[in-house]
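Revision sheet: C-alpha cells.
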Amino acid sequence: MKLKELSSKEADYLSKIESLDEQIQNSQKLISNLQENNTSLRQEIEEFHKNRIYLHKQLSEKDSDLIRLKSENKHLQSKNNDFKDLVVSMKDELNKYSNQLETIEKRIS
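Predicted:
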C-alpha cells in the first residue's frame, strides 16, 4: 500500500513539475515579448526626442524669422509713411506752383 501511495504521489509531483515547467516556458516567452516591446518603445521614445529637438530648433528658427520680418515690416511702414508725407508735401508744392502760375496767367491776360 505504501508503494502504491508513493507511486501516486510521485505521479502527482511529476504532473505538477511538468505543469510548472510549462508555466515557466510560457513566462519566459512573455518576458521575451515584453523585452522586445520595451526595446521597441525605447527606440520610439528616442525617435520622439530627436523629432522634438528638431521641431524645437525649427520653431526657434521660425521665431527668429518672424522677429526679423516684423522688424523689417516696421521699417518699411516707416519708409512708406515718409513717402506718403513726401507725396503730400509735393502735392502741396505743386498746388502752390499751380496757384502761382494761375496768378501769373491772370496778370498776363
